[in-house]
């Protein structure tokens, strides 16, 4: 992102000073699960496309990438209807997958998919901000956790709880693969007044939340709070050019990889009650 782009974006964002009232903020946060469940009731499996790009971006997902003697185990948090999971299961015969979401309807869609088979995939309902992953998955047994457009759905004050929860099931040396919306993304700049809860946090028309990440915020969550090692943390900018209307605009994403320390004791001690 160049300086001129950032300056323009900041000017647009600074014009929106009105915040959603406290009562409604609480309601959107309390009813997040219900609103996502309604989303899947309306859209069934038709909203998101299969994410066929993930093994191009993350080498850890390719066949032959080994973490240890055993075949890799992956957990996809906020799996929705499985658009991340299916291409990986098809393309990487070595991997087995846990997939969770707090929308029971989404998890039912995953289980109903013809590619779902309990020998390689296990889907379950879990709110990653409050239900312990370690109640379903053995502690420190997962090589890869994928967080693909899910942290943006969490209120910022609950994001650190989700990181701590993941750390309980991640293996020493295991990796978190992260992709989500970045600050100054076109969608952030397009929110009309009346949708902002706080800086970088908005509510969509359907009541779901959308947080826009800076690379600094990711570092705060995963390195400072989680004690993980940062392997990659960057903005991915995609320019959209509408020739007819002569409009240039940018989709901005954050893409990152973090690694758990090799020593389990270091992970445990990183899981302090840091509030960020
Ligand atoms: C934008 S969708 C992404 C789905 C999937 N990761 C993909 O790449 O297609 C975000 C998903 O996160 C889920 N989600 C939001 N907050 C959650 C939470 N606290 N615990 C578990 N899942 C959550 C939503 O139900 C939704 O399915």
From TrEMBL:
Keyword Transferase assigned: yes
GO molecular function: RNA methyltransferase activity; S-adenosylmethionine-dependent methyltransferase activity
Xref: Pfam families: Methyltransf_12
Example of a GO biological process term: methylation
Similarity field: Belongs to the methyltransferase superfamily. METL family.
Function of the protein: S-adenosyl-L-methionine-dependent methyltransferase.
PANTHER family (UniProt xref): METHYLTRANSFERASE-RELATED (PTHR22809), TRNA N(3)-METHYLCYTIDINE METHYLTRANSFERASE METTL6 (PTHR22809:SF5)
Protein name listed in UniProt: tRNA N(3)-methylcytidine methyltransferase
Native organism: Coemansia pectinata
């Amino acid at each position: 992102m160049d300086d001129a782009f950032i300056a323009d974006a900041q000017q647009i964002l600074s014009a929106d000073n009105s915040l959603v009232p406290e009562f409604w903020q609480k309601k959107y946060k309390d009813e997040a699960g219900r609103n996502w469940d309604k989303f899947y009731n309306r859209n069934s499996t038709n909203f998101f496309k299969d994410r066929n790009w993930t093994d191009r971006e993350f080498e850890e997902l390719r066949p032959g990438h080994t973490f240890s003697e055993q075949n890799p185990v992956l957990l996809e948090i906020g799996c929705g209807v499985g658009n991340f999971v299916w291409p990986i299961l098809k393309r990487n015969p070595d991997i087995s997958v846990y997939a969770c979401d707090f929308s029971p309807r989404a998890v039912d869609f995953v289980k109903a998919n013809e590619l779902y088979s309990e020998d390689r995939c296990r889907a379950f309902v879990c709110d990653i901000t409050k239900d312990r992953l370690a109640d379903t998955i053995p502690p420190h047994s997962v090589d890869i956790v994928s967080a693909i457009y899910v942290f943006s759905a969490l209120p910022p004050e609950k994001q650190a709880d989700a990181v701590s929860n993941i750390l309980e099931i991640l293996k020493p040396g295991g990796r978190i693969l992260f992709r989500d919306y970045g600050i100054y993304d076109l969608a952030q700049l397009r929110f009309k007044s009346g949708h902002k809860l706080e800086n970088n946090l908005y509510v969509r028309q359907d009541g779901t939340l959308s947080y826009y990440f800076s690379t600094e915020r990711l570092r705060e969550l995963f390195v400072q709070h989680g004690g993980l090692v940062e392997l990659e943390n960057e903005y991915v900018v995609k320019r959209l050019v509408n020739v007819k209307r002569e409009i240039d605009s940018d989709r901005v994403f954050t893409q990152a990889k973090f690694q758990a320390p090799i020593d389990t004791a270091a992970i445990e001690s990183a899981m302090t009650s840091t509030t960020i």
